[in-house]
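W.,

You were right to be curious about this one. When I first looked at the sequence I had no strong expectations either way, so I just let the prediction run and decided to look at it fresh. Below is the sequence, 131 residues in total, followed by the output.
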Amino acid sequence: QRVVRLEHSLTDDRWLLDTVVEQLELPPEQVYEMPDNYDYVDFHQIAALDIPTLRFTPWIPTVPLALAGNIARLLVIMLAGEVYGQKIGMKVHDWSGFVTFAIAITLILVLSRVIQEDAQPSTNVPDEKPA
């Protein structure tokens, strides 16, 4: 895409401005000196345009996997302690850290593989029809 207009504020560094204008190959009539005090409320007209590619994707809050895993682990420890007694609850506590760690490592490896597959471009080439 070609730059069609350059707006700049009053500057003492004419060399920088001239270099930018030269690099952008702009004619002098397309270079405009603007005041420093923009009224940013005027930009609302641009922000209000219904152009999805100019919008940020909405932020969706999520529960981190570590937090969800620890909550599940604590619930299992408490349940084991209540149902089977303190001795079994302590054994579940001692071993559940290793199990949780193994599950977390497995999920990280699976997710990294999924992300890598999504990042690679498709190499599907359609078959040519015989002439």
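Here's what jumped out at me. The two ends are 39 Å apart (CA to CA). And, maybe more interesting for your project: The longest helix spans residues 86-119.

Coffee later to discuss?

I.
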